[in-house]
Amino acid sequence: MRPVISAVALAALLAGCATVPNSAPDARKSSFEKAARERALAGIVPEPAPEEGTAVAAAESAPTPAGVPSGHATISDEQAFAAVSSRETIESDRERLAAMRSKYAPVPAKPLPGRVDAGPNIVAYALSTTNLPGQPLYRRFSLAGPKALMRRCARYSSDNEAQFEFLRRGGPKRDPLGLDPDGDGFACGWDPTVFRKAAGTGG
Questions:
Q1: What's the angle, vertex CA 60, arms to CA 55 and CA 63, rounded to 5?
Q2: Can you give the pLDDT of all 203 residues of the chain as single tens digits?
Q3: Residue 101 domain flag
Q4: Which range of residues forms the domain containing residue 155?
Q5: Is the entire prediction scored with pTM above 0.90?
Q6: Residue 143 lies in a domain
Q7: Does any domain span residue 40?
Q8: Is the dihedral of CA 165, 171, 175, 178 positive or negative?
Q9: Is residue 137 assigned to a domain?
Q10: In total, how many domains does the chain have?
């Protein structure tokens, strides 16, 4: 009796295992069918998937956005004389130039601002003199020695700046800063012959 029961139990176990692999597809199929029935009851009609040829044709017929070059770009022939001369004439060129000139807006001229007095002009002063450096023309009363003159001239970045300040403070007749002790009219060793030669008026 016991062997018979064992055989029946084994057969039932094998039958249950045989039905397990097919259970998942049946469940998925039933869920799809249920969803289809719900869409049908709700009045929703599924849209058919577009065919491959239709999608490609629609993509090719779509307009090209502005500013984006199309797939059939051509090279300009504006530099080709034969091509341009075949479609342009002297009259058309004249009309195009006239149209371009009509768009020009002339800017009215404004008067130049007046010259601001920036102080003495050392170049004009150099050209107005004829004496050489070291040749005295003006009386000076100074007891300061060469070292004092060097200290005074060291305040300026160049001899041109020293000469400018010398003229601005009353030179060459007066020398309140003590920059021209020899009275030649040139402060701190300033040399006017450089400007005279550049202007072609001699040394």
A1: 120
A2: 454 455 555 555 555 554 444 445 555 656 767 777 777 766 665 555 555 555 555 555 555 554 445 555 567 777 777 777 777 788 888 888 888 888 888 888 888 777 666 789 999 999 999 999 999 999 998 777 889 999 999 999 999 999 999 999 999 999 999 999 999 999 999 999 999 999 887 66
A3: no
A4: 122-199
A5: no
A6: yes
A7: no
A8: positive
A9: yes
A10: 1
Which residues neighbour 153 within 8 Å (Cβ) at sequence distance 6 or greater?
159, 162, 179, 187, 188, 189
d(CA 189, CA 155): 14
- Both structure tokens of 58: 């629609």
